[in-house]
Design brief:
Elements (H helix, E strand, L loop, with lengths): L1 H24 L22 E2 L4 E3 L3 E3 L1 E2 L6 E5 L16 E3 L5 E9 L9 E7 L9 E3 L3 E3 L3 E6 L6 E5 L10 E2 L4 E3 L5 E9 L9 E7 L5 E6 L7 E3 L1 E3 L8 E8 L4 E12 L10 E7 L21 E4 L7 E6 L2 E16 L4 E10 L5 E6 L5 E6 L4 E6 L1 E2 L1 E5 L1
Parallel strand pairs: 2-8, 10-16, 19-26
Antiparallel strand pairs: 1-4, 3-6, 5-7, 7-8, 9-11, 11-14, 12-13, 12-15, 15-16, 17-31, 18-27, 20-26, 20-28, 21-25, 21-27, 21-31, 22-23, 22-26, 24-25, 27-30, 28-29
Length: about 400
């Protein structure tokens, strides 16, 4: 009996490999169908990052690819595991900002195939250095003649923004595109500039102060143009006028009696001079009426009263000043053929008016330093009124 049992054990032991092999290839609930085992051709390829993970000294843009044709990629940047419900990859992923660390996880999915393994890469941005600080040519100082100040930056591709009103320059300040004029005896201007470039910290702010001392005409009064831009319509259609003509007046007061010999101003075109540039200008001075707060004026289109009125006889040396608040502007200057004497302590008003051939679209630049208002007249409504913002102008003389 013991011999029989031992023989049976040997027989069962001999059949075990066959039974195990049968289970590996035929496990279908009794149907007899074969089950295919997964292999590499049944799995979507793992996504690949075009940029290896690591630390970079400038902002980066990370692209993701997959070797499996027609596969789609889903990714996360919040630390979670990506699934088919995660954001769909359609464009390179930006990694920007000094000190930024981002981990991108991605899977590739294709219908009929098993999802890929998760790919992961971590990126850190640590800027290496700031944009170079701007420099000025000529250097700051006192000069015996008018100057034109250029600003440079040694960082390739950087843009420069500047101010002349004492404020700290930012990306919203005037964009430097051409040398900045510093003109007029007695003028003192401080130019502040900052250089910017995407992917790098802003430069330090540079500043330079310039004084013009020629011994001739000195700046008597000035409302500098606002570097943030803005135009106030002050133009009429020559020779017969139109219902769209506008007139802008602003007050000034000198502490002592002086002779005004030159007027300078800034302006531009509200419709980009689409219908023609200014062909001429008038510069007029007015007294203050009995209220003490308004100019003593009558309708400008018919027999107006004034203290002095000058016809420039040209475009007043229209010179590109730069782009301010998205608008191209120009500088103008006019030497009065006979001085206008302003009594000290007396409020006067000045109006600078462009003459245009078709449409009155010229405007004088918004000024700074006044009470934030000007007086204006519209031919369309036949009304005088106060409106927001000063006009920009500079008076020079002796």
């Amino acid at each position: 009996m013991a011999h029989t049992i031992r023989n049976r054990r040997r027989m069962m032991t001999g059949f075990a490999p066959l039974a195990i092999a049968f289970l590996l290839v035929s496990c279908g609930g009794g149907s007899g169908d074969a089950v295919a085992l997964p292999n590499q051709q049944d799995v979507t390829a793992t996504p690949a990052f075009t940029l290896p993970g690591g630390t970079y000294t400038a902002d980066q843009s990370v692209a993701i690819g997959c070797a499996t044709p027609d596969a789609v990629i889903h990714y996360t940047t919040d630390g979670s595991t990506p699934t088919a419900a995660s954001p769909l990859y359609t464009a390179p992923i930006p990694v920007a900002g000094n000190g930024t660390t981002v981990t991108i996880r991605a899977i590739a999915v294709k219908q009929g195939l098993t999802d890929s393994a998760v790919a992961s890469a971590t990126y850190t941005i640590v800027y290496s250095q700031n944009v170079a600080t701007p420099t000025f040519t000529p250097p700051a100082g006192v000069y015996g003649a008018d100057q034109s100040v250029a600003i440079q930056c040694t960082t390739a591709g950087a843009t420069i923004h500047y101010t002349t009103d004492g404020s700290t320059p930012t990306a919203a300040s005037a964009l430097y595109v051409a040398p900045i004029p510093v003109t007029g005896n007695g003028t003192t201007v401080t130019i502040r500039a900052v250089a910017l470039k995407a992917g790098m910290p802003d430069s330090a702010v540079a500043a330079a102060t310039y004084t013009i001392s020629t011994g001739g005409a000195a700046v008597l009064f000035s409302y500098p143009a606002n570097p943030a831009g803005g135009l106030l319509g002050s133009s009429w259609v020559s020779p017969n006028g139109s219902d769209a003509d506008l007139y802008a007046y602003n007050d000034f007061l000198l502490p002592t009696t002086r002779a005004i010999t030159e007027v300078r101003w800034r302006g531009g075109y509200l419709q980009d001079a689409a219908f023609g540039r200014a062909s001429d200008f008038t510069v007029a001075f007015f007294a203050t009426n009995v209220t003490g707060n308004e100019p003593d004026v009558t309708l400008p289109e018919s027999h107006e009263i004034f203290l002095a009125k000058y016809q420039v006889g040209g475009n007043a040396g229209e010179t590109l000043a730069g782009t301010f608040g998205g608008r191209v502007m120009y500088d103008y200057r006019y030497q009065l053929p006979t001085p206008f004497t302003a009594a000290g302590g007396t409020k006067y008003w000045v109006r600078i008016e462009a003459l245009q051939p078709v449409v009155a679209d010229w405007g004088i630049a918004v000024g700074t330093g006044g009470d934030g208002s000007h007086y204006r007249y519209s031919t369309g409504s036949k009304t005088f009124r106060f409106a927001a913002n000063d006009t920009s102008f500079t008076l020079l003389g002796n």
